[in-house]
Amino acid sequence: MSEPERIRKQQVAASLREPVREAAALAEKLGLDPYPVNYWIIDYDEMNELIAYDGFQERYPHWRWGMKYDQQRKQRQFLGGKAFEIVNNDDPAHAFLQESNTTADQKAVITHVEAHSDFFKHNQWFGLFSDTPDAARMLASHARIVESYMNDPDIDREEVEAFIDHVLCLEDCIDQHDPFTPVATGGDEPFEAEDIAERLDQLGLSDEVKRQVFSDEWLESQRGTSDEARFPAEPELDVIAFLRNHGKRYDRDAGKAVDFEDWQLEVLDVLRREAYYFAPQRMTKVMNEGWAAYWESMMMAEEGFADENEFVDYADHQSMVLGSPGFNPYKLGKELWEYIENTTNRREVAEKLLRVRGITWRNFSDRVDLDAVLAALEPDPAIAHVDSDSLDALDPDDPRVDAEALAAARAGEVDVGRYPWKVLTYEGLCERHYSLVKRQHRGFLKRLSQTDLERIARYMFDDDRYGSVEEALADVDRRRGWDRMREIRESHNDVTFLDEFLTQEFVEENHYFTYEYTHTTRDYRATSTDVEDVKKKLMLRFTNFGKPTVVVEDGNYNNRNELLLGHQYNGVMLDVKQAQQVLERVFELWGRPVNLKTIVKELDDHDVEVARRRDREPIPEERGKLIRFDGEEFATRDLPWDEVEHLAATDVDYDTKPEEWLA
Questions:
Q1: How far is CA 538 from CA 19, 325, 488, in A?
Q2: Sequence ranges of the domains in the chain
Q3: What is the pLDDT of residues 272-294, one digit of tens each?
């Protein structure tokens, strides 16, 4: 790094010390509890390098990083995309800020990062898979291991790269429902015919004795019956671990499968460990980005962390992030978190009002003036508008007020004009930012239907607690929304998050719909605004990271030590050419023929034409297929339905088949 460059970065870092300190303090006031964050100032090219390396400064040598770097650079150059920051999941977390960002951008990034770090620390899926105390050190150690093999004169560097390629095609084939554990070698693996022959040779018996004592029928019987020889006993989701335990490499000179070299086993362990480390980031993309976008907006816009000279720049920044075309996890996530906050707060208010003497779900709309309710829920003016002139109106004994900070502010030690939140507690900030009375959400309470009220009342007890509406509203807990959001942040991933909280009300309010290619019109059309259809469509994107779910069904298929993989079909067919390419890779990790069971959709041209004339969609026929690769050529054959029926989806599990809308 040149001296001018170093000085420039130091100047940027110095200007950000106060925003970093105050953002961490504000995050804590808002109820967040992030890992400590170390911030680093980097230039444009360094940002591209870090993005290529998934947020870390050192990764194992491989061509994929150069490819990702080139993609990122060209995206900025030709498509106008901009990376404002990157943050990694570690304790402490490390965030990298681009020095060319405006001050508004830097502040937005810092508040965004504090929320990400809170999510990393508390989401249980990160704890399940990312249990390493120092991820940067782990990945650097992996880099040195792989590099040592590439530099070993006894190992062909190209062979190491090719082996990594074989494993990476399976990096999504891990078990997302179990915590990471090192591979336990061993297990009951059936004898191979070649193994039995080698053992007989070691006995030193003549061919005549072998033929008399060990007949071909006996040798065949040692393979065991189909049921006895089947392993694993249940389909194995962690394909990489299975291949690590039971796989071999094909020795072309010897013409047979032989054990992995030690370096291959270690590379398998390294790549599997990294697949598990990065899994939660892909499993929680919508939740995590939405969480960060929500709290960034809260801090920057609603708490004025962007000052008046920066606000327009920040608005442009936010619109760029939330308004990007295509599927946008920031936008969907933020809208869902806001919806959860609003529905939680709305239920709290409804429960309180339904406990007022004389008010029931049947007469609610006649007895309750919701405009008056919203007016009563407005924050106390002394809490809503804090400045140096209003400090005397605050009571240090009020639980909404931070007595120590209030004393410091009255002594002139706190700039409440710039940081009014400093004199408030979590309770005070909950009231100050109560969602139901915000302008953009004021209609939310009024959307309470009779059905909603009946459902709430059905599970209520002691429903005669308050003598008046005013008394009930005074007892409303304004912390409920944020408290509930933190509970959900801890336990969900994207699949469960969308499954539980995506509702018809949300779909209609935020204008979500599905679209499909229709054979009738030969183009894409909006097909449904039903929540179940929207939900299923989204599930296809998030189940198994949006990739096909493939499991090990049998490591001794047909008693021939062939590998049988099963594609858990969810209504979307595999790309057969890509599947064949993957089988070629898997063969290199199994050393013997590999097979893949799947389900395909077949449409007859005549049926398509008839359906088009009748202005309806043709219904494809689903058939079972087996693709086999023996190391040299592929063979594909039809399978009876009863052999693939277990792979077909049900309507309840999102690993399974959607209904006809996906046809």
A1: 37, 16, 19
A2: 343-509, 517-662
A3: 999 999 988 889 999 999 999 99
